[in-house]
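INFO worker-7 received task bundle
INFO bundle size: 2
INFO processing item 0
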Amino acid sequence: MLIEIVFQYRTLLGKCDLGVGLDWDEIEQLAAIESAFAPTADDLRMSSGRKFRREKVELSVLMRGDRINDRVDLVEVGPGGFVVRRAPFVARGEQVEIQIDAGDHSYRFRAQGVWMKDDGEDYRLGLALIGMPVCLHKVAVSKHDADVIDQIAAAA
């Protein structure tokens, strides 16, 4: 899955930033991911100075920040950042968290606003990834019985 690849890349970069260093296999993984997302010669974004190309996706994700807790549409993913639609106002440089739930994993990425364009009543945002991401594993200790909380979540 594309999100796992971006998670792996950002984790390897985070290890470098922490000064832990990488072993030879991790260096090869990092190089392989960078070459897989390298812009092509005819890619128009190459002239903008962007290091990586982004892949189109269609995911509903949760964006959290200062007074932000909204569902947004993740439309482009790359090792350097994301593009989201149906998003609230996020100022340039403002930091947010993007939560992507995939099966029994919940990926959490920190990002900061880079650009914003009007998108109807909402905004289309370019977000640059920062720091090391986190992956939470969801585990059910026992069988879940439906309760009032489930009814509230279903009604929303």
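INFO item 0 finished
INFO processing item 1
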Amino acid sequence: MSATEVKIKLDIRLKSTNAEFMVVEASGVNVVKSGDAVDFFYDSERIAGVKGNKIILNGVDDDGVHFTISGVK
């Protein structure tokens, strides 16, 4: 979309059943670079971040409980 605004498509499924765990698509995600880190904000809330070879995803489950998923490449 632009250098500071992107569209994100995320599809995370359970390995055992292939059931959807976190499947979302969002436009208008703001990209903020600070040093060697890149953060992604949606509706003023940090939804993800990338630093080096690590990615962190923030979410909220159906019960309103916040959680974080991280991965390393």
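INFO item 1 finished
INFO post-check item 1: The CA atoms of residues 12 and 18 lie 9 Å apart.
INFO post-check item 1: The chain has no helices and six strands.
INFO worker-7 idle
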